[in-house]
Amino acid sequence: MRCVRLFPIFIGLIMIISFNCAYGEDFVFVDLEPYANSKILDTNWWTGDPGNTDMEELLEIAQDGHVFEGPGGDEVPFKIVDAVINVFGTNAANNPEKVEGIQIGMAAESVYFVHMTGWEAVGVPSYKFVINYDDGSFEELLMESDVNSDNWDQVPAPLSDENSAWIWEETAVTVARGGVIATKWENPNPGKRIETIDFVSLNTAAVPALFAITLGGASAAVEPVEKVMGTWAEVK
Fold it and tell me: What is the pLDDT, as a whole number, of residue 236?
């Protein structure tokens, strides 16, 4: 069910925000479609080339949003559409080395990433997320196989990071079983507005893929006169 709420920002201006009543007001989906370079349906997701459909069941249940049991048992909604962002790995060398500027424009207490890799590089980080604040500062989240990431066909291999967990597995075409991981990043600066997020390869054999981002404890971080009381929305 979709709802619309009106928020007064300052005299004479109203902000209209659409939110999803089913999940409450703490979570916000980030729209990845403008940045996608691959798909799920009829596509080798790791290259974007025509091929097999893998993770079709995941797409079916989550394309309008679905609550998963995430890291630490958190119940977190993710919206997974037919749009995947891939970055470089030597097994898919035509992918870009990074995808920058994924628009956020909000403050958030945490950020949840749905991701995995094709192939892997054990013992070293193979990709990272760069969280850019509106004041020019940034934080980085390094992703390493067996720690907070893994090859998609290793599901349900254990992950040592307590903030990461396999949230889905299904029978695949390319491999016997395939899955995706959710990682929760706790924002050390929850009062700052996150302007953008970058998805960056660290140039290993692993081919990183990003399927969804959900913001937790999200709010529009603006000056007090423009303060929005609370939102549930999809960041476009």
Answer: 66
**50 domain-assigned:** yes
Pairing of strands 85-86, 98-106: unpaired
Helix (H) or strand (E) holding 57: helix 56-62
What's the domain count of the chain? 1
Residue (of 130, 128, 126) closest to 146 by Cα position: 126
Burial of 56 (C-beta count, 10 Å sphere; 0-12/13-18/19+): middle
- For residue 183, being part of any structural domain is answered with yes
What's the CATH number where 79 sits? 2.60.120
**Bigger pLDDT: 109 vs 15:** 109
Spatial distance between the Cα atoms of 142 and 97, rounded to a whole number of angstroms = 15
Gap between the terminal Cα atoms of the chain: 19
Q: Does 182 fall in a domain?
A: yes
Domain-located, residue 2 = no
Beta bridge partners of 168: 180
Global pTM value: 0.86
Length of the chain: 236
Q: Which amino acid, one-letter code, is at 71? A: P
For residue range 16-42, what is the model confidence (pLDDT) as tens digits? 333 343 444 489 999 999 999 999 999
- Angle, CA of 148, 77 and 158, to the nearest 5°: 25
Residue 125, domain extent: 22-235
- Cβ-Cβ contacts under 8 Å for 95 (sequence gap 6 or more): 37, 46, 47, 48, 86, 87, 88, 89, 201, 207
Cis ω before 156 (30° cut-off from 0): yes
DSSP state of 193: P
